[in-house]
Amino acid sequence: MKNFSIAIREVGSIHVLDISGELDAHTASQLENSLKELITMGKTQIIVNCNRLEYIASAGLGVFMAYIEDVRSLGGDIKLSNMTERVYNVFDLLGFPTLYDILDDESEAITDFQSK
After folding, report:
1. What are phi and psi of 27, to 5 degrees?
2. Are 82 and 110 in contact (CB under 8 A)?
3. Which end of the chain has fewer CB atoms within 10 angstroms, the N or the C?
4. How far apart are alpha carbons 108 and 23 in whole angstroms?
5. pLDDT over 70 at 94, yes or no
């Protein structure tokens, strides 16, 4: 099993989670804890940069589904960016592009938040 890591950085009022490695049943709790912490602090403009995400399993997808409604009910959103084709295909297969903004580049997600 490869490592999984999350680095959180701020771009103005937007919080970017840079995730890397493999997001599966063993590592999903790290993403869940990061999202919970941001939501608890009232930080609801969230971008998940998947540039270095190599693999995602159903447990990882479940974390995204578990928190999207909470974030949106607080007036925010979770946007996903910089996916490799392999990772995007998993999200696409399960219909995520109809539920989430999935953008090619993080800068597009930032612009989208700033324009609202």
Report:
1. -115, -10
2. no
3. C
4. 24
5. yes
